[in-house]
C-alpha cells in the first residue's frame, strides 16, 4: 500500500526537480541581458554585481511563483527593480526636479550650435562620448531612470515596464517622456558645459 | 493662442514616432512634414542615432567571476 503512495510522490519530486533545474538554467541564460539593465540602473559596477546576486538568490528561492510561459526576463527585472528601490533609494536623497523648459530638439541644437559649424547628424552625435551618456543617466532621478533604462536599453514595451515597476502605463509614458528630456539636458551639459563652453 | 507651429508639433511627435505608438494618421502627418522640412528631418535622424548611441553606451559584459557566483546560487542537486 505504501508502494502505491510513494510512487506518485517520487514522480512528483522528480518533476519538481526537473522544473526547478529548467527554471534555473533559463534564468541564468538571461543573466547577460538582465545585467545590461542592472548596470545602467545603478551607479557602479560593484552595486550592479551585488544587485545581480541578490536578484538571482531571490529568484532561485521563489522560482515557484514564476508562471511558466510568461516573460521570465520581465519577472527577473521586477525582482531586481524592487530590490534596487529597497536598497539604493534609502541612502540617496531625492534630487530636486529642475524646471525643464527645453524640448526634444534641445540636445541637437546645443551640440550643433557649439560645434565646428557642421550640422550633419552623424558628426553631431559623434560629439558625445560614452561617458557623457553614462554620467548623464546617473543624473536622471530614479523614477524616471528606471523607465528610460527598461524601455531604451532593456527593450521592454511600455506594458512590460508598467508591470515590472507596478505603475500605470500612462505613468510609464509620462516618465519616459520627461526622463529622456532630463537625460538629453544632462548630456548637453556634460558634452558642451552649461555655458556653451 | 499662438498660431499653429508645424515644427513644434513635429517635435512633440518625435518620441511617440520613434516608439512607434502613433496612429497611422498621426504617423502619416509627421512623415508629410518631415518630407518637406529639413530642420525637423535632421533632428529626427539625430534622435535615431542618439538612441542607438545610448543603447550601446557603457556596455560592459558581466565578469566571469559574477557568472560563476550566480551559477553558485543555484539549489544543489539532491
Number of beta-strand segments of chain A: 0
Order of SSEs of chain A: HHHHHHHHHH
> Averaged pLDDT of chain B, please?
91
Reported CATH architecture of the largest domain in chain A: Orthogonal Bundle
Report the radius of gyration of chain B as a whole number of Å. 22 Å
Helix percent of chain A reads over 70%
Largest sheet of chain B: none
| Rg calc of chain A | 22 Å
- How many discrete domains of chain B? 1
Q: Treating each run of at least 4 consecutive H or I residues as one helix, how many helices of chain A?
A: 10
Count of beta strands of chain B: 0
Produce the secondary structure layout.
The complex is a heterodimer of chains A (197) and B (78).
Chain A: H1 2-29, H2 31-41, H3 45-61, H4 72-91, H5 106-114, H6 121-125, H7 130-139, H8 142-153, H9 158-165, H10 169-192
Chain B: H1 6-18, H2 24-36, H3 38-56, H4 64-72
Helix pairs in contact in B: 1-2, 1-3, 2-3
Structure description:
- The complex is a heterodimer of chains A (197) and B (78).
- By secondary structure, chain A is mostly helical.
- Chain A has two domains: 2-91, Rna Polymerase Sigma Factor, Chain: A; 106-192, Winged helix-like DNA-binding domain superfamily/Winged helix DNA-binding domain (Arc Repressor Mutant, subunit A, Orthogonal Bundle).
- Helix content of chain A is 73%, strand content 0%.
- In chain A, helix 2 packs parallel to helix 4, helix 3 (45-61) packs across helix 4 (72-91) and helix 9 crosses helix 10.
- The longest helix of chain A is centred in the N-terminal third of the chain and has 28 residues, at 2-29.
- Chain A is elongated.
- By secondary structure, chain B is mainly α.
- In chain B, helix 1 (6-18) packs parallel to helix 3 (38-56) and helix 2 crosses helix 3.
- Chain B has helices spanning 6-18, 24-36, 38-56, 64-72.
- The N and C termini of chain B lie far apart (73 Å).
- Helices cover 69% and strands 0% of the residues of chain B.
- Chain B has one domain.
- At the A-B interface, helix 1, helix 2, helix 3, helix 6 and helix 7 of A face helix 1, helix 3 and helix 4 of B.
Amino acid at each position: 500500500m505504501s508502494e502505491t503512495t510513494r510512487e506518485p510522490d517520487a514522480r512528483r519530486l522528480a518533476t519538481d526537480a526537473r522544473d526547478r533545474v529548467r527554471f534555473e538554467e533559463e534564468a541564468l541564460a538571461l543573466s547577460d541581458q538582465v545585467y545590461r539593465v542592472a548596470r545602467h540602473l545603478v551607479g557602479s559596477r560593484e552595486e550592479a554585481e551585488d544587485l545581480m546576486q541578490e536578484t538571482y538568490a531571490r529568484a532561485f528561492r521563489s522560482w515557484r511563483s514564476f508562471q511558466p510561459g510568461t516573460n521570465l526576463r520581465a519577472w527577473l527585472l521586477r525582482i531586481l527593480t524592487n530590490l534596487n528601490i529597497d536598497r539604493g533609494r534609502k541612502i540617496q536623497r531625492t534630487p530636486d526636479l529642475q524646471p525643464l523648459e527645453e524640448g526634444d530638439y534641445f540636445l541637437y541644437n546645443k551640440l550643433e550650435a557649439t560645434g565646428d559649424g557642421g550640422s550633419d547628424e552623424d558628426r553631431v552625435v559623434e560629439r558625445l562620448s560614452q561617458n557623457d551618456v553614462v554620467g548623464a543617466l546617473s543624473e536622471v532621478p530614479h523614477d524616471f531612470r528606471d523607465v528610460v533604462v527598461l524601455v531604451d536599453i532593456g527593450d521592454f514595451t511600455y506594458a512590460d515596464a508598467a508591470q515590472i515597476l507596478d505603475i500605470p502605463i500612462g505613468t510609464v509614458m509620462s516618465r519616459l517622456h520627461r526622463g529622456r528630456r532630463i537625460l538629453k539636458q544632462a548630456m548637453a551639459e556634460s558634452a558642451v558645459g552649461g555655458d556653451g563652453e | 493662442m499662438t498660431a499653429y507651429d508645424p515644427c513644434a508639433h513635429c517635435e512633440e511627435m518625435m518620441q511617440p514616432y520613434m516608439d512607434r505608438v502613433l496612429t497611422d494618421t498621426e504617423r502619416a502627418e509627421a512623415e508629410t512634414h518631415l518630407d518637406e522640412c529639413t530642420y525637423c528631418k535632421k533632428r529626427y535622424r539625430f534622435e535615431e542615432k542618439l538612441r542607438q548611441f545610448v543603447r550601446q553606451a557603457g556596455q560592459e559584459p558581466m565578469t566571469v567571476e559574477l557568472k560563476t557566483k550566480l551559477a553558485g546560487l543555484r539549489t544543489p542537486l539532491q
